[in-house]
Design brief:
- By secondary structure, the protein is α/β, with parallel strands linked by helices.
- It folds into 2 domains: 222 residues, Spore Coat Polysaccharide Biosynthesis Protein SpsA, Chain A; 78 residues.
- 39% of the residues lie in helices and 20% in strands.
- The strands form 3 sheets. Strands 1, 2, 3, 4, 5, 6, 11, 12 and 13 form a 9-stranded mixed sheet that branches. A 3-stranded mixed sheet has the order 8-7-14, with no helix packed on it.
- The longest helix has 24 residues.
- The chain is globular, with a radius of gyration of 19 Å.
């Protein structure tokens, strides 16, 4: 596939002190990415390691956007991408191993389907390569109480990839670990919401674009391997904080009024149970993180209300990938551990 220089894709890696990932995965990325259709960019989020000098000395063909400090995932990408001119942005985590011809199916899909705003490859686990990866698997969904899950992953239950989700499908969201978006639309909606800082900002972005009538798609013809937890490892209380707080942001910003009130009420109840459970599991720091998440959610309530007025949320019955049931109930009570068991 040939693409004119003005229409090239910008594969943009947001890096923060990730020199080890850069050393391991940049050579693979360069080997498997056709330079005629894409440029490789690294947006450096104020790293204090040797990331920038390493890239300049070892891979001069990579384009650099240095930022003065760590702005987090959301604002870091917003600031970095504002300095990049391309038809498509392909956001790629530094801890991802791409595969042969990984980019071509995504680009072909976008070129042939102008109503698709965002697409993503299938995410597989770097360490357990025949299994889906937690962050996005084969496309994301969200339940009526704002809990995200995926084709191939419900909470901690991660499925083996046996080709069961190899059909092209619309979904609610795809992981920001490997996300391709039309630059025109990214800029039109203002990119990521800076208030999220990190985690679930891609769900918010996908939701806003669905409200405008665009499609979000996972393209399984392309797959990549993701380590996950490169910046905030699993089990870090900060990750717990961002996941709980940002999930509440999603509900407040994007759900229509009647549903929003019911969902928030149930979230208070369910998250309260989760917090008590954390205490009994010997995870007091995570329990405190949930309390902080709610405290800061209430502080930001007015800001989220103003943003919701600008969004004008659609009724969820018009959204692809919105699961109008409780995934908590389906998983923990009825013991449905695989996505196919949900009957979606």
């Amino acid at each position: 596939m040939e693409v004119s220089l003005s229409n090239k894709t910008a594969v943009a890696i947001l890096n923060w002190n990730g020199i080890n990932f850069l050393k391991e995965f940049v050579p693979v990325l360069l080997k498997n990415t056709d330079k005629n259709i894409a440029d490789i960019w690294v947006i450096d989020n104020g790293s204090t390691d040797e990331s920038v000098s390493f890239l300049k000395n070892t891979f001069p063909e990579i384009k650099l956007v240095p930022l003065d400090k760590n702005y987090g995932f959301a604002e870091g990408y917003n600031k970095g991408l504002s300095q990049i001119n391309a038809k498509y942005y392909l956001l790629l985590n530094s801890d991802i191993e791409v595969t042969h011809k990984w980019l071509e199916p995504l680009l072909e899909l976008m070129e042939n389907n102008p109503n698709i705003a965002i697409c993503s490859p299938k995410l597989l686990d770097y360490k357990k390569r025949d299994h889906f990866e937690y962050a996005g698997a084969a496309g994301g969904y969200i339940d009526k109480y704002g809990y995200p899950f995926c084709r191939g992953r419900i909470f901690e239950n991660i499925e083996k990839d046996m080709g069961q989700y190899d059909n092209l499908t619309e979904c609610m969201w795809v992981s920001g670990a490997a996300l391709m978006i039309r630059s025109e639309l990214y800029n039109k909606v203002g990119g990521f919401d800076d208030a999220f800082f990190a985690h679930q900002e891609e769900i918010d972005l996908c939701w806003r674009l669905q409200n405008l009538g665009y499609k979000i798609v996972c393209e399984p013809k392309s797959h990549v391997f993701h380590i996950g937890g490169g910046t905030l490892e699993k089990g870090n209380p900060r990750k717990t904080y961002y996941n709980f707080r940002n999930s509440l942001f999603l509900i407040k910003k994007n759900l229509p009024q009647g549903q929003r009130r019911r969902s928030l009420f149930m979230r208070f109840f369910l998250d309260g149970i989760a917090t008590v459970r954390m205490i009994f599991q010997g995870l007091p720091k995570d329990a405190v993180a949930v309390v902080k998440a709610y405290f800061h959610f209430w502080i930001k309530l007015g800001e989220m209300k103003k943003k919701r007025k600008l969004i004008k949320p659609k009724k969820t019955k018009y959204l692809k990938g919105f699961y109008n049931k409780s995934i908590v109930f389906q998983n923990f009570i009825t013991k449905k551990e695989n996505f196919r068991d949900l009957g979606i």
